[in-house]
Model the fold of this input.
Amino acid sequence: MKLEGIHHITAITENAQRNVDFYAGVMGLRLVKKTVNQDSPTVYHLFFADEEGDPGADLTFFEYPGAAIGTPGAGMVHRIVWRVAAPESLDFWEGRLGAHDIELRREGDSLRFSDPEGLDHEFFVADVPDAPLTADHPEVPRELALQGFHAVRAYAAAPETSTALLEALEFEATGAGWEARGDARGGLYIYDPPPDVRPVQGAGSVHHVAWASSVEEHMAWREKAIAAGARPTPEIDRFYFKSIYFREPSGVLFEIATMGPGFTVDEPLEHLGEKLSLPPAFEHLRDEVEPNLRPVVNPRAPQT
Ligand code: ZN
Done:
């Protein structure tokens, strides 16, 4: 029994439109679901992913209008590492991101930059057998596109306090970091020493990282987490997947989410993310919620 790498990563944005312009427009991901935060249904929850909305390439944002920019510190994920196929892809992204006035740092097989709210990304030429999870953007050739998540990097002052839990969750210590690798996919969890700042969650901060479980094994992972001293929530039905949440000892909020039923449960694949989707338990709030959400225009949507 192994986790199948990273399921999704959830962060915070202050501005949904700027967020969609950057992630769907510049980074070439597909907006696969536009819904609300189920724990705070007056704000957006936007999901960007590959073309099929697969776990493994799914970056999501809560929109908190007016939120101040956060400061990553101890106990927070501070960088998202994406896979690309080859150095030519880094050349392409260097040009494309540079044309959008994004400051870049290229070192060997990696290209680093921050999104407009300071969330750090790294594109990395990864040698893994995993199927590439790519989106189709008219300006991004498929062979150069992002291929899904490779890793998250978190700040931790005493990462050894997390060892027992990570081992209980069947992560394996590798030279590159802690790896969760299942039958189809793997993902890394990497600790860095924290900067000497007070951590503040805000716009541009990662809220949590979710690891992928089969539907059948979900509750067994909950038992393993409890046995290792974590205090997971009960299983919560998020409609697109089921989730448990707990804080790992270094302070990072973990989720374990099921790899189904997925984003096509309430809209067809070809129309993912076009309208505001509300799971059945939230549909009665539509008239109250929809008029108060700032409309977003998807740069990738067909222009009429
Ligand atoms: Zn989540």
Remarks:
- Residues 8, 10, 208, 210, 255 surround zinc ion (CB under 6 Å).
- The first strand starts at residue 6 and ends at 13.
- Residues 131 and 185 are 8 Å apart (CA to CA).
- Helices lie at 16-26, 87-99, 163-168, 218-227, 286-289.
